[in-house]
Write the structure tokens for this entry.
Amino acid sequence: AGLRGAVCQRCWLLAHYGRALRLQLPPEQHRLVVSAALRRPPRHGRGPLLLYLLDVLELPDPVLPQLPGLLGPDVPAAGLLVVGNKVDLLPADSPGHLGRLRQRVAAACAQAGLRGAPLVDVRLVSAKTGFGLEGLVSRLQRSWKCAGDVYLLGATNSGKSTLFNTLLRSDYCKSRAPDAVDRATVSPWPGTTLNLLKFPIINPTCDRIFRRQERLKEEATKTEDQLSSEERKYLNHLKKQGYLVGEVGRTFQRQKSSPVVDFDPDMLSYSIDEDPRHSPRKHEEREEFTHNEVKDARWCFDTPGIVKENCVLNLLTEKEVKLVLPTCAIVPRTFILKPGMVLFLAALGRVDYLQGEKPAWFSVVASNLLPVHIATLTNADAIYEKHAGQELLKVPMGGEERMKEFPPLVPQDITLEGIGTTEAVADIKLSSAGWVAVTAHAEEKLLLRAYTPKGTALVVREPPLLPYVSTIRGARIAGTAAYRTKKPPSLVENLKTTGRK
């Protein structure tokens, strides 16, 4: 009993210091844990629902093709619901961009051959800002009800632990569970969840669904002005974090009893020669479920993240990962390049414009903390040799010693044909460091050469994820290849607009 609240050193460092012990866990071991969990005998006479979370920035998702292997004929899965996460990080490049993103996620599922289990739905959410999560909870309660267990699957850094923690504090979880269930540790370090965490799913009875719908209707009539000062402060914080913001509320709040204060007058009286005495803190009893509460419970499990192979994040230190992974709304950076010019994304990627008749636009969609540097073909190699590992290119960091162990950049030639000055023809995805959307004049043929570190994946994504991203820009900065950046406004879900600008 004394060890019940104990946590391992790794979880303590992650939770309190944002640091991780470097653990080398091969992908096979991660798959073994997840696969073994999925192959458990069905409980309550029905197989589990698989809730697969993917990072929309990573499309085509590198783990999706591995799922059919996990979902073999011996896996009794009853359904698959795919959730595209981190949509809050991407700016709206045109009306209806969310519908287009949803189609891309559905197409990626079909391309990966996910036909082993019926595809229940495809949803878009932000586990961090809460966008789309009330809709996800309603969808789960409407289609899955409380028919069986739910397993949360996904690649490392897809936001699974953040989603698990948000669902834990939502109407999807039993009202008493947040006090009795450990939250998942959230960290940019790959492979945070090493074992299965779980919380009990609430039974969505007709009465509960009705009360929940009434709460959602009431909240949808509110404007920002009607929120409390604390709520407005938190909302403004979320707006800085993402373009799409939502609120995850609770209909079924557990009434907590008021704590009884033991008053001891002797503890308050002391002479001038004495120091005040502190009463010993009583050990707080941890909440525990009763047998009746869990005997027939359906559970939502958070599984270990499946490690992405050929990923640049696997080559980086903890400090470098925090710079590369975007944590707030991405502001696109657009440059107009002529043939013979080069674009560096930190020291993790490079795009050379080798041949073409006219200038073309290159829009960088990556963490705002990663620097972009423009050079010419004649001096690009010298710049990389001199500044890789230094402040100009920033990542990797650590100087010459760091670069000795870092893989060299390897090239891949790419041929594209422009479709117009406002629509990108393709994205050049530089592993998980970000991507460069290429926009060129109609029928203009371009020869490009892109580089990523050896052993990492370079993907030409056609069609591009944000085809009109080059239009999200300000005026050209005189004497440079760069345009001024422009950040679109945030959209708040489930709040009535006041009509003010």
Remarks:
- The radius of gyration is 26 Å.
- The mean pLDDT is 82.
